[in-house]
Write a structure and sequence with these properties.
- The protein has one domain (about 5-180): 3-Layer(aba) Sandwich (Rossmann fold), CATH 3.40.50.300.
- It is built from seven helices and nine strands.
- The chain is globular, with a radius of gyration of 16 Å.
- The chain is an alpha/beta fold.
- The strands form two sheets. The chain has a five-stranded parallel β-sheet with strand order 2-7-1-8-9, with helices on both faces. Strands 4-3-6-5 form a four-stranded mixed β-sheet.
- The chain binds guanosine-5'-monophosphate.
- Guanosine-5'-monophosphate binds near residues 39, 99, 103 and 104.
């Protein structure tokens, strides 16, 4: 039997990364797809674990060769999901999870309607601003840009199979575990 594809998406600052890490710890049978990106690695990030870091030229070449299941530009950088890894694991019966932004998430849903789209959001919009500020790495200018993008993303929530409110990390993780376990 084929595995299932789960897509965890939602606006910047909703806590996708933290929730995804917890899910992987608590569901060791779940396989994470490692994305390719043109953004520079942060201090704690490792090649092939956090991302496959590359330059724009190689990214666009991979795209041209149909190597991505989806890809999107997120502010100044490109991000893409390597297609082969995802399809191979699903064909081997494994459940795969993507942690990606909404433009890419909706592309996957269109190509693979059987995939399960989960939108992670926050109780109120101001929580997004608070979380972006608490990262300490964002300027007021980038926070403004991220909030403008978040407005569009929040308006597309109804296209998702499930909406999970990240009020408390524990609750959000448990709800997503229940969704994954149910399917
Ligand atoms: P960051 O640069 O903070 O790691 O990620 C920025 C955004 O890109 C996050 O919303 C993250 O979920 C998203 N992202 C990471 N990998 C991919 C990918 O392969 N495709 C798409 N569309 N978005 C991605």
């Amino acid at each position: 039997m084929k595995g299932k594809l789960f897509i965890l998406s939602g606006p910047s600052g909703a806590g996708k990364g933290t929730v995804c890490k917890r899910l992987l710890q608590e569901m060791p049978q779940l396989v994470l797809s490692i994305s390719m990106t043109t953004r520079s690695p942060r201090a704690d990030e490792k090649e092939g674990i956090s991302y496959f870091f590359t330059d724009k030229e190689n990214f666009l070449k991979t795209k041209q060769e149909d190597g991505f299941l989806e890809c999107a530009q997120h502010f100044d950088n490109y991000y893409g999901t390597p297609k082969k890894f995802v399809l191979d694991n699903i064909n081997e019966g494994k459940n795969v999870i993507l942690e990606i932004e909404p433009v890419g998430a909706l592309q996957v849903k269109e190509k693979m309607p059987e995939s399960v789209l989960i939108f992670l959001t926050v109780p109120k919009k101001s929580d997004l601003i608070d979380r972006l500020r608490s990262r300490g790495s964002e300027t007021e200018e980038t926070i403004k840009k991220r909030m403008a993008k978040a407005e569009i993303e929040l308006s597309q929530m109804e296209k998702y199979d499930y909406v999970v409110v990240n009020d408390e990390i524990e609750n959000a993780v448990n709800k997503i575990k229940e969704i994954i376990g149910r399917i």
